Amino acid sequence: MKLCLPRIEISLSKIQENARILCEFYGKKGISLMGVSKAVLGEPAIARAMIAGGVQFIADSRIENIQKMRRSGISARLVLLRTAPSQAESIVKSADISLNTELKTLEMLSYHAKAQGKIHQVIVMVELGDLREGVLPCDLVAFVRKTLTLSHIQVIGIGCNLACYGGVRPDRRNMGMLSKLVNMVQNELGVALAIVSGGNSANYEWANSGQAIGEINNLRIGESILLGCETVGRQAILGLHANTFQLVAEVIESKQKASLPYGEICQDAFGDIPKFKDRGIRQRSIVALGRQDVLTAGLKSERRLEILGSSSDHVILDSENCHLQIGDEVNFGLDYGGLLSAMTSPFVGKEFVGGEHRETVRTNPTPVGAELN
Ligand SMILES: *Cc1c(COP(=O)(O)O)cnc(C)c1O
């Protein structure tokens, strides 16, 4: 079978193993996991690998991804991480649980839940310093009180999200605050909150530090499962696979060239004025990969290959120490941005490796010349 290029090779067995190890680690602390699938477009095969590894929920920020997983028969409970009033009807239809911070949206969710004969479960997100989504702590009790009056909404938990926009580190203080707020809501309103969702992949260090976990009994984990690292300092987590995804592209030119462009230097394709170091004549290779396929800053090459730069459709490599010929395949590792962009590009084929079968999936539109299968 001919494989498409460029393609992203996805190891389901490594993803499953990462999920299993993390579920064990967090499980010992009484913390359940939601596997977050947004960086992989809610790819059902990846969600299944996470479930096989032990996650109890699958969470995604896009309703389209939730719908895709629902259609494919994913068994775990599906959690929508970001809601919008205009999507209330489809949210109630496809998601079991959603994260919310606005009363208007909750009212619309309740309205549509009633129409669909359902009770929609929600987790209320509280702001603890990162300044992305969240009800202010001083408003939380009143907010939950109002939410409890909505006939077709059930408040099942409180959550918070850090280290995303503001880069705020989860620590004893903000996590302690979350526990305190949970107790306050439970005591003042007489409700039992089943889920206290304390954060994301940035919570690893906090959880591993041996300090009190408090009321927190859930985390929403994407990057740690997918790329094997925590996200406060992007440190590898011992025992996890970091090479679960490989982006493979084809060499389309390989020549000895000067390392310093000649002629008058003006703006490059993206409006920047580039700077170069003169290293004399070097072997350079071009791979058929560019910013239409991947956020090229998110590519990681093996040590013998140096990524010199990129444009929409070309990545230029210094291949002096690595004999590359036309038609050769080059593998790149990916960081989170690279993964997200490669999974989103219609030009990148997706291939599952490891386990029994190889299976190629291509999202549309299908680039010319690609083999479908
Ligand atoms: C993306 C997201 C997560 C997962 O973050 P990771 O760093 O990938 O673990 C968790 N919660 C919310 C609300 C998110 O948007």
UniProtKB/TrEMBL annotation:
The keyword Isomerase applies. The keyword Isomerase applies. GO terms for cellular component: cytosol. Its cofactor is pyridoxal 5'-phosphate. It holds the Pfam family Ala_racemase_N. Residues 10-225 form the Alanine racemase N-terminal domain. Keywords: Isomerase, Pyridoxal phosphate. GO terms for molecular function: alanine racemase activity; pyridoxal phosphate binding. Gene3D superfamilies: Alanine racemase (3.20.20.10). This is Alanine racemase. It comes from Leptolyngbya foveolarum. The lineage of its organism: Bacteria, Bacillati, Cyanobacteriota, Cyanophyceae, Leptolyngbyales.
